[in-house]
Amino acid sequence: MGTRCSVAWSGECIAAVLGVSAFVLVSLLVLLVGCGGSPDRPRQADGHPAVIPPDLASIPDAVPRFEPPSRYGNPPEYEVFGQRYRTLVSSEGFEQRGLASWYGTKFHGRRTSSGEPYDMFAMTAAHRQLPLPSYVEVTNLDNGHRVVVRVNDRGPFVGDRVIDLSYAAAHRIGMVEKGVAPVHIRVISPTEEAPRAVQVAGSGSLDAPALEIRDGSEVQPRFVQVGAFADRSAAERVQRDLRGLGFGEVRITTLSSTSGVPLHRVRIGPLAGASAVRDVEERLQQAALQDYRVVAEE
Q1: Which of 98, 46, 80 is nearest to 153 (CA)?
Q2: Which of residues 58 and 29 earns the better pLDDT score?
Q3: Helix (H, G, I), strand (E, B), or coil: what is residue 190?
Q4: pTM to 2 decimals?
């Protein structure tokens, strides 16, 4: 787990950057405690959640979209612990390799550098240079697992670590227990239809990246997954709701996890080609259903 520091809101950063008095710093910390934190989630000192949500594996990737730059967390340059950093004007074409770490309960509910509260169960991340917000695909080079996250915070400020992932994102790419992992970072543009596929022999866990079918050079997604549930009845309710919205082909597929708890996935399809997928996505968005992911038959 990497030490991180919220440039806009962390008391440590404020002290380092502004050199405020101890009395003022204590007052600021009291303010942060008052507005930070989430009483509905138990905490542990080591950063792991005391209770892991049963649907953690089904939390969808962040979906890249056009957003205005955050009013906070985007100074041209800033200083933390005596080191100066420059914020990139544009994230276009950005790629990077290095170590990823993750942060958990210690910061859950606190304000990030963008001013948003940190949610360890959302697909987010912290980066020192990328504009806030940015969307990046993070690939664990040890196992090929990947995740798309929304960068809304600053950090990590430790050694050669290049990105701090949320707990959910770190769990997705299989690096929670180890704490750090070598990764490749690639900025995802909202105009991209789907991230590049990462194929790893023998990677069949629930946390593996969604598969994609390639026809020549064209990536052809085949299903839109609307949710995945440990409770079969919950999956069936979603299936009925989708059919009530006019989606004819809605299926439930079940996988067994290493813990023995089955995961019931609700998927629309099969769909023939990218245009059919876009049509389904538009209809889901019109129905205010945002948490979905495009996958291929596994």
Answers
A1: 80
A2: 58
A3: coil
A4: 0.55
